[in-house]
């Protein structure tokens, strides 16, 4: 009886470990400049180093600097029959957010996905190119499986970047969580 109970506990622990750890991979990234006189992407890609290590890099050059009013709309989408809204669709004033990053936990969570690998984590104005360099999948995986657990599936993070209340660029990142 003790052997069966021990095996049952071991099986339950294995199920819990499998439930906690998930495999996340980048499937696509799309960058679109909507006003090429204001900004344009120099590069935007996923690079696969090997089967398990991929990263995203992008660089957008700003042509009308300094930029003093920035808003970002984040939409988390899940693929069912096409991509539909899932959990979050929020617009934040980036300049106000960077004055006090603790004021908005949701923005802190979403921006935490990429800010450690970017040059955007400072107060306005922005008078330089915006870069996300070598954002590794293991960092994103930690956010989506350990910090706030997402169910398995295909997801997209749609972002719209607005300067002076005009949508200037869209960046969409697609991932698979299994």
Present the secondary structure layout:
Elements (H helix, E strand, L loop, with lengths): L1 H19 L3 E10 L5 E10 L5 E9 L7 E11 L1 E12 H6 L5 H7 L18 E7 H11 L5 E11 L2 E12 L1
Antiparallel strand pairs: 1-8, 2-3, 3-6, 4-5, 4-7, 7-8
**According to CATH, what is the topology?**
Ganglioside M2 Activator Protein, Chain: A
Low-confidence stretches: 1-21
Q: How many separate helices?
A: 4
Our measurement of the CA-to-CA distance between the termini, rounded to an integer number of angstroms, reads 35 Å
Overall pLDDT confidence: 80
The percentage helix is 10-25%
Globally, the shape reads: globular
According to CATH, the homologous superfamily is Ganglioside GM2 activator
Instruction: Report the CATH C-level class.
Output: Mainly Beta
Largest sheet data: 5 strands, antiparallel
For the CA atoms, what is the radius of gyration?
Answer: 19 Å
Strand adjacency order, main sheet: 1-8-7-4-5
Query: Which second-level CATH architecture applies?
Result: Distorted Sandwich
The percent range for strand residues is over 45%
What string, H for helix and E for strand, traces the elements in order?
A: HEEEEEHHEHEE
Quick one: how many beta strands? 8
Secondary-structure content class:
alpha+beta
């Amino acid at each position: 009886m003790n052997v069966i109970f021990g095996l049952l506990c071991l099986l339950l622990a294995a199920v819990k470990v499998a439930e906690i750890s998930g495999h996340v991979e980048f499937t696509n990234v799309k960058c679109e400049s909507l006003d090429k006189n204001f900004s344009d992407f120099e590069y935007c890609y996923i690079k696969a180093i090997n089967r398990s290590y991929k990263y995203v890099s992008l660089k957008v050059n700003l042509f009308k600097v300094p930029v003093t009013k920035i808003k970002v709309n984040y939409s988390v989408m899940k693929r069912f029959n096409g991509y539909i809204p899932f959990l979050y669709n929020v617009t934040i004033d980036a300049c106000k957010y960077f004055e006090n990053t603790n004021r908005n936990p949701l923005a802190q969570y979403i921006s935490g996905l990429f800010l450690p690998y970017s040059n955007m984590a400072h107060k306005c104005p922005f008078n330089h190119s915006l870069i996300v360099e070598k954002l590794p999948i293991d960092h994103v995986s930690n956010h989506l499986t350990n910090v706030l657990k997402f169910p398995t599936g295909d997801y997209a993070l749609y972002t719209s970047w607005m300067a002076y209340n005009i949508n200037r660029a869209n960046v969409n990142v697609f991932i698979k969580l299994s």
